[in-house]
């Protein structure tokens, strides 16, 4: 007779298996967390410690120094890019949510005019990408080059997100919708006063997807924006951190005092680009299982 305890009909792993799993998970966590700790430490370390360590500090031992953050937020290129990214993310996410939810609602109402052909087009767009050159030509023909709308509009509707939202709308209780129709509610009122309030989970998750996508987008800006004053933060991050372009006083609001080491400034820019998503994610995480999995199963 086996001496293993059964949980849910399955034997529990023995002590050696649990130890191996614990070690494996600890190593994975260390690989993920340690570089992040190094980035934070380097951005907060004193200039002397950064120079002594050769550019990368794992743990600051002589206190914290916020001079790198003060330099990049005192005006100049990084501050302007931060404002541009905030505008693109706020406007783009709002527009994308509106278009996705309205399209998902229309596709969820079976029997409406053009429902099946439009749904087929959405499904086909999941399989076939228009490509880089056709997309660029469309943006050019609409006169959007060197405009922030060139970064916002081309990715304002995701077919995957439309399918998830549609599947969630299909699963709404039909009795509630029929009762509202009997009381004289229009389709817009059904969507605005019943559909959206009952779908907060999927709207929150899809909103996070769009928000992260807009905040992290840099390739569209690289293609369509020629004016450096319109660059989002991720493109500035690519220029100063990935390409290694040196940051001068003219890029930091013309600060006359001595600048922190380049590595500290680069790590501070990297942290500024990460912090907004880290602040938003915990508030939406609890909706993931209910929002995405429910939509996927019912779709």
From TrEMBL:
Name the residues that span the membrane: 20-40, 81-106, 118-137, 149-169, 190-215, 265-284
Keyword Coiled coil carried by entry:
no
Record domain ABC transmembrane type-1: where: 82-284
Q: Which Gene3D superfamilies does this chain map to?
A: MetI-like
Task: Give the keywords, sorted.
Answer: Cell membrane, Membrane, Transmembrane, Transmembrane helix, Transport
Query: Which PANTHER family does the protein's record reference?
Result: ABC TRANSPORTER PERMEASE PROTEIN MG189-RELATED-RELATED, POLYGALACTURONAN_RHAMNOGALACTURONAN TRANSPORT SYSTEM PERMEASE PROTEIN YTCP
Write the protein's name. Carbohydrate ABC transporter permease
């Amino acid at each position: 007779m086996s001496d293993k305890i059964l949980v849910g009909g399955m034997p529990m792993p023995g002590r050696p298996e649990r130890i191996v799993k614990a070690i494996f998970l600890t190593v994975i966590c260390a690989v993920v967390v340690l570089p992040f700790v190094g980035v934070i430490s380097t951005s907060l370390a004193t200039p002397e410690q950064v120079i002594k360590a050769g550019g990368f500090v794992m743990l600051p031992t002589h206190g914290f120094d916020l001079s790198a953050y003060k330099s990049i937020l005192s005006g100049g290129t990084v501050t302007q890019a931060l404002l541009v990214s905030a505008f693109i993310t706020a406007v783009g996410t709002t527009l994308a949510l509106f278009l996705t939810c309205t399209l998902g609602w229309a596709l969820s109402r079976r029997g409406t005019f053009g429902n099946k052909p439009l749904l087929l087009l959405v499904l086909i767009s999941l399989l076939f990408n228009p490509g880089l050159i056709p997309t660029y030509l469309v943006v050019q023909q609409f006169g959007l080059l060197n405009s922030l709308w060139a970064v916002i509009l081309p990715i304002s509707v995701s077919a995957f997100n439309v399918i998830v939202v549609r599947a969630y709308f299909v699963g709404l209780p039909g009795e509630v919708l029929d009762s509202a129709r009997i009381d004289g509610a229009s389709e817009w009122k059904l969507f605005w006063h019943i559909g959206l309030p009952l779908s907060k989970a999927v709207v929150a998750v899809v909103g996070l997807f769009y928000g992260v996508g807009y905040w992290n987008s840099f390739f569209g800006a690289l293609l369509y924006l020629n004016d450096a004053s319109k660059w989002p933060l991720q493109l500035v991050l690519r220029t100063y951190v990935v390409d290694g372009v040196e940051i001068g006083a003219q890029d930091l609001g013309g600060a006359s005092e001595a600048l922190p080491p380049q590595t500290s400034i680069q790590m501070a820019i990297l942290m500024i680009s990460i912090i907004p998503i880290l602040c938003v994610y915990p508030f939406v995480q609890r909706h993931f299982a209910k929002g995405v999995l429910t939509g996927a199963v019912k779709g």
